[in-house]
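Task card 7
Instruction: Convert sequence to structure tokens.
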Amino acid sequence: MTLQEMIGSLRSRIGNPLTSEVPDATLTGAVNRAYKEIGTKYPFNETRCITSFETIVDSPRYDVPPDSNLMYRLWDDTNKRKLRKRGVRYMTGLPLNYPTGKPLAYVRVRDWMQLIPTPDAIYTIKVYYLLDLQALSDNADEPVLPFAWHDGIVLKARHIYYDDRGEIGKAIYAMNAWKEWLSDKPTEMDIEKDDMDDIGVVISSLGNEFSSGANRDPRFNERFDYEY
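Output:
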């Protein structure tokens, strides 16, 4: 569904109030809050992304992907190994003369990360992360989530709308309707776990099955199979 269709569906579910009573902007806000909550809370292939960058000799710091909500893991694709996540305290405790070498760990600080040790050569680092969903704004905008979940966004938005207005009875009803709808709604990634259970700890298909947003690296046209 487009944003316009979602607004129309939500308006009909709250009794078809006039736009003079409930502006489209109010419903748009509820839809976007529901969209972001669902996309962040539940696992979807469309919100799991991979990108890569190449290290620079003697440069420890690199930008976090601009469209990332959080980073799940980093791995050194050149040397085929996962980088261990460390805290800021670990980074600040490193000696000034800490030797350069192949990256073994990383520290995330706001919109940048530091590789440890500082790279001594050019290595390809891949980043697996959660997409930061952008708000729907134009009438023709559509959620990146599977179409089967679009109606769920509207149901969740209805609860948000009533809860914001303090209409407790209606908010409880809307929440129960949302929960009932959700109860038998598996995600794509839940279904894929059936296959993953058969192969142990191998995490498959972290490639072009993921969302291809504006900032995604266009070189990802292959599949990757890694063990952790």
